[in-house]
Design a protein that fits this description.
By secondary structure, the chain is mainly β. The protein contains 2 helices and 17 strands. It has a 15-stranded parallel beta sheet that branches.
Length: 214
């Protein structure tokens, strides 16, 4: 039998105890060993460095983490926008209620766990993800064109559409993802589906192979 896909490593945050309080955040901030609080409105943390910290962004309209580096960070979000373009996330948990739009273009994620989120649109074109887990997430559109995915899994998740144009997969487990449509089934090479999923998507897979279905 074919080998099972390798599972992503679990995310075990290294957080100091106690955490000091850090109120607010600004572009290029350097935050270490803190609980970041007092965020409101449209928070701007572009190109910041946050390590071994807790980031409470549940009450903001948006938090801009473009170009930011997060290491061993627990993030709680309830935003309408979460810009993560060219971000670098290592050992990060993302939990909360909602993240309307996540723009993770050209991001680098290593050991990221997203849990219990309602995401309208997640764009991660040209990104590199390793050891990423989606758990109990409800996603409208998941865009992964030209992304490189290694040890990525979904647990009890659903998505309307996944854009897999020129996606490269290695040890990607999609069996826990209830997907309505994959834009380009050829981008699923190297991923694992269940037999039921393969049957459900059989017609679009056939069309991608040039097989006429009548």
């Amino acid at each position: 039998m074919p080998a099972e896909p390798k599972s992503p490593r679990s995310v075990d945050l290294d957080l100091p105890d106690p955490l000091r309080v850090h109120r607010g955040i600004r572009p290029r901030d350097d935050v270490f060993g803190a609980e970041v609080t007092g965020l409101e409105g449209e928070a701007d943390a572009r190109h910041s460095r946050i390590a071994e910290s807790v980031l409470d962004a549940e009450s903001v309209t948006s938090i801009d983490l473009t170009g930011a580096t997060l290491t061993d960070v627990a993030v709680t979000i309830g935003t309408t926008a979460l810009p993560l373009r060219e971000s670098r996330l290592r050992s990060v948990t993302l939990t909360g209620r909602r993240a309307g739009t996540i723009d993770a273009l050209r991001s680098e994620w290593d050991g990221v766990h997203l849990q219990g989120l309602r995401i309208d649109y997640l764009s991660a074109a040209s990104s590199e993800w390793s050891d990423v887990i989606f758990e109990r997430c409800d996603i409208g559109s998941l865009d992964l064109p030209q992304a490189r995915l290694h040890r990525v899994s979904f647990i009890d998740c659903r998505v309307d559409e996944v854009d897999t144009r020129e996606t490269r997969c290695r040890d990607v487990d999609l069996r826990g993802l209830d997907a309505v449509r994959f834009t380009d089934p050829k981008g699923l090479s190297g991923a694992t589906l269940s037999a039921d999923q393969a049957v459900f998507h059989a017609q679009e897979f056939a069309v991608a192979l040039g097989i006429r279905v009548r």
